[in-house]
Structures are given as structure tokens and as C-alpha cells.
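dude i think i finally got it to work??
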Amino acid sequence: MRRHRKIKIVATLGPASSDKATIRALWEAGADVFRLNMSHGTHADIAARHTIIREIEAEIGRPIAILADLQGPKLRVGVFADGAVDLAEGKPFRLDLSDAPGDASRVQLPHPEIFAALEPGSSLLVNDGKIRLRVTACGADFADCVVSVGGTISNRKGVNVPDVVLPLAALSEKDRRDLEFACELGVDWLALSFVQRPEDVTEARELARGRASILSKIEKPAAVKAFDAILAVSDGIMVARGDLGVECPVQAVPPIQKRLVRAARAAAKPVIVATQMLESMIESPMPTRAEVSDVATAIYEGADAVMLSAESAAGQYPVQAVATMDAVAIEVESDPIYREVIEASRKIARRTVADGIVSAAREIAETTDIKAICCFSQSGTTASLVARERPRVPILALTPLVDTARKLCLTWGAHCVLVPPQDRFKGAVISAAKAARADGFADTTDFIVVTAGVPFNVQGTTNILRVAPCDERLIFRADPE
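look at this
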């Protein structure tokens, strides 16, 4: 019932993984979080998958996190009279608001907000960047362009605008309906697409009203530039390398990934590395060496989670993809160089009492024969701070709240355990000792470190640390009251 790795695995559900047997097999293979992609499937489809996950959760007795990924506004060209045309490099091409079918000289772009933001010299990328247009002149209802990179353009292909911040909200009307549906359903995380500014995150948080944590997808250059402000108002981050690789030069994506992962780690907020991690496993039972190396890189960087998209949602080998990711993680984390890299990249943050407590917990655990750090937490803050330290020993996140346990399934190294509510620290220590023994982290001859906030039920009060035996009889002798 315990994972033998610290990084978490997010698996997207879809047509290849919608039945209960497959979803359970994905969990058994190593999936910690299930992603429901709101871009595909009806609300009935999403609800059915949610129900299955919660049934499996009850059967196995372990918390499982569910992440609903909102689609975001989709910018697309209109249709062509012949279905598609070929654009040649150096030729002129116009985008406008007319709904007349397009041809080799023009096509509709039904988004006046784009025209309002464009200026001469701006770039427009069509069909995942395969076609590139440079704006030569523009107005309120048109953009005259020259084709920088040609190719075939067909009906309703997507458009990216990397050079400007578009006056578009991150939440479309569809997203607002999907957000409310997902919150009522009871998901744990909401992934927000098309984030450009911190206000986009604040809007989603207001709509969620505390019913789900907000994870910002960083997929636009504007979001990279405003990352510190976006991180400050987000509960977690996803490095969404798909659109990021379209809108930014591909060679810029790896450094961006490293910077975002480190910043999220320093803020004690979970960060997911996503997109094309094991892409070849959509059709092959074996990944490429480059893909394995890509997954390993995210693990060495200290990311909280790695994510599978089409590999588990629509691929031919969804369970094998999760199992492969699990095997890579176990192998990498057993490498002595992994610890060297993780510890070299650790930022010492001791600005508060809580920072000092969790740092001391790690140092004690790593310099003595301690089997685990046990965090008793209502909100999950204590466990997140301990995870920021990336300790060598396991982290047991103990909470009486199932919502907190589920949310922490995305946090690096956190083994989440539901325990009875406590009003005294001694009760928390006893619960920690029982949980450590029950889940195979320690036995009665071992010791654990226990951290908590006193008084209980007050968020952000991590202020106490105790080294305790895993035999509660010894705990009672030391503290009979």
C-alpha cells in the first residue's frame, strides 16, 4: 500500500482508461493522481470516471487525488472553401472577421481580441506552430501577414499568439460551467489553462470558493514573465511544455522548466512536469531512451510529479506507461547522485518558526536512526513544508480530513494517512506511531520524528517537534497524562 519512490505520477483518463478494471490497474501500477481532461468527454463521462475513482479509493483504503483540467479559451481559424490550402513562404495572407469560407489569400479569425492586441511585427502560429505568420499591417478587424514558415492549413486549426498578452480571460464560458461542475463533483485540484497574469488565478479561486485547490498551467511566455506573481496566488504549478514549446523557442523550454521547478519547490508548492514524457508509448510498449531520460531529468530536478497525457488516456499501453514511469522513478531515486543533486539544489528557508521546525526535523532524521518524519496537519501546510526539504526518510502526512489527504497526494514524498481528530499533541504522536507501524515504515523498536502545530485545528501553526518511539507503551511511560 506504500510507494517506493518520492515523486508522484499523474495519469490522464480517457477512452483507453475509462473502465474500473483499467483505472484500478493504473493505480496499482503507480498512479497517485488521476487527471480528468475537461477538453474531452461530456459531464456524464467525467462524472462516471470520478465515481469509479472514489469507489476504488474506498476499496483500497488509500486517498487518491483527482485533478480536473479546464480547457481554457481555444483560438482557431475558420473554415476553407476547399477544406485546406497550401501557404507558401514569403506569400501574403490575411486574417479577418469575415465568416466567408477561406482561400489561399485569407481566412476568418473570429477573435477580435487578437486583432486588438496585435501590432506590426507580431507573430501568429497556426497548427501547433507548423505554420508561422508575421504581421505586416493590422486593424480592428484584420491582420495582413507574410508567411514565414509555410505548409498546409485546414479548417479550425489552433492559433497561438506568443508575442503579446491577449485581452482574454483564462476562463471561457465553458470553463466556468466546467469549473462549477467539477467543484460540485468534488475534485481536489483544478488546473487552469491559458494563464497570463495573476488575476486569472484569482478569478478562478473566487469561483472555486475553497472547494478545490488551484494549479496554474504555465504554457505562455506571458506566464513565464509573470511567474513569481502567478506562483504567489497559486496552490500548485504545471509546467505545460506542449504550448510552451510552441510559443517559446524549443531550446528555451528546458531552462524554463528548471527555473519553474526550483521556484515552486522553494515556495513549498507542488509542481508537475507534463507533456510528451513517454509519447512513443501511445503506440509502443517500450519508450525511447530519450523519453526515459526526459522523465529522469524531471525527477533529478526535484519535481513533485510527472504526468502522462495521451499515453494513459488514449494510448494502447496505458498501464505499461504508468509502470514504466514508476520503474524509472525508483531507479533514479536509488542513485546516489540523485541525493547529491537534490541536496545541492535545496534552498534553506528559515524565516519562520515553521521553517525552523521542518528544517530541524529533516536534519535530526538524517543524522540519527529515524525511520520517518510524521506531520500531523489539518490544512497540509506542515507536510508541504517538510516536503520542501526533500528529506531522505519517508514523510507520513497525517490528517483527520480526507480533503487534505487527497490534496497532498500531489506532494513529493507525502504518504497520506487518515487518522482520528486530535486535540492534544500526545494523541498525535500515538497516531503517528501506529500509522508508521501499520504501513510498514517502522516497528516497535524504531523512532520517528513528529511535527505539528499547537493548538490544533489552526492553520499555519507548525511549532512543535518530538522524537518519539514507535511503541506507544513507551510514549505513555514518558508522558502518562
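The chain has three domains: 8-72+169-332, 84-160, 353-478.
im so relieved honestly
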